[in-house]
Amino acid sequence: MPLTPEEPQIHESAQGPRVTPAASRTAQTPRPVPGPRPAAVPRPGRPGPSPAAASRAGGASRPAPPAPPAQRAPQATPGPVPAAPTAPSVSAAVPQIQLIPASAEGALDAAEEAVDLLLDTGRAPGDILVLTTGDPHPWAAHELSFGEAAYWALHDAGDDVFYADAAQVERAAGRPVVVFAANGGPAEANAAALPTALTRAGALLIVCGDPQQINSVLGTGV
User: Which 8-state DSSP code applies to residue 186?
Assistant: First the structure.
């Protein structure tokens, strides 16, 4: 059949080589054969492989149990700050001295008023020791009539005001308050008994007598 001018002739040599679909595909790298997967190294803070993954990794032994979570160290609770040591008070070691000016005749009455005031302000009777330098207190004279043993037994009981001769101050035990009545007697004996009375007073020594004589013995300006 003759070709018309409108239909150009396609020569066989103009066609390129025919490529089959299979030849046009790029060859792929063959996939590896699935095998046992190595156990992955656990990352910090993440759990390790599960038991199933460990069994696939070649029948490894059972994984060790996970370590318990780290416990927070208990914080030390602030305690009370200990107070700085202070120097001992002078008044705690040396008793206070109170002077009541009185004559030898009025010293015993002044001592009685001091005892009444101490009891009225809350002092316990057993806290008070009264010493006399002259005539004994009427209570002491009465109790001594029953004998020395009964008299000093009342002293040892320590539940009431005790009256004693200043000459026996060495035998008397110390009490928080000592009332010293200089109601007579030799001046030398009074001067010897007064310093000992001071050592028997735990907190307070009340002296009823002549201020000049008392100051000269104790060396104080009370």
Answer: -
pLDDT in tens, 136-165: 999 999 999 999 999 999 999 999 999 999
Q: What angle do CA 6, 12, 13 make, to 5 degrees?
A: 115
- Say which residues have a Cβ less than 8 Å from residue 63's Cβ, sequence separation at least 6: 48, 49, 51, 54
Beta-carbon neighbour count of residue 179 at 10 Å? Answer: 28
pTM given for the model: 0.58
Q: What value does the CA radius of gyration of the chain take, rounded to a whole number of Å?
A: 57
Q: Closest by alpha carbon to 194, among 185, 207, 204, 211?
A: 207
**Helix orientation angle between 187-200 and 211-218, rounded to the nearest 10 degrees:** 60
Q: Which two tokens stand for residue 206?
A: 């009340």
Q: What is the pLDDT of residues 209-222, one digit of tens each?
A: 999 888 888 876 55
